[in-house]
Amino acid sequence: MKKWSRLVLAGVVSLALIHVPAASEAATKAKAFKNCTEMQQTYKGGVAKKAGLKNRTGYDKNGKPTYKATKYKAYVSLATYNVNTKSDRDKDGIACER
Fold it and tell me: Keyword Glycosyltransferase, does the record have it (predicted)?
């Protein structure tokens, strides 16, 4: 019984020591770009904050958003998008789409 409890305790302690990268560490690996030209050399379709977003091109006469397909597919990375939010001028969740 003592061996069993020591084994369980050792397992709990070893799990506590496993390093899980924090969100701040993941954000530091994201690359900041000066402008869209520089970003599009790496990511032709820009960077989206989540999958499934559409490229909003404007609004119709009734105020509903209009969408248009892009030539290139956007790379999905929340960390990279968050570092480059200044490049998302139309605020549709895709920075530097084309």
Answer: no
CB neighbours of 27 closer than 8 A, spacing ≥ 6? Answer: 79, 82, 83
Confidence (pTM): 0.67
As averages over each run of 10 residues, the pLDDT of the chain (98 residues) reads 62 56 58 95 95 91 92 95 95 93
How open is the CA angle 76-63-49, to the nearest 5 degrees?
10
Residue 64 CA to residue 58 CA, distance in Å, equals: 8
Tokens 């920075």 belong to residue: 95
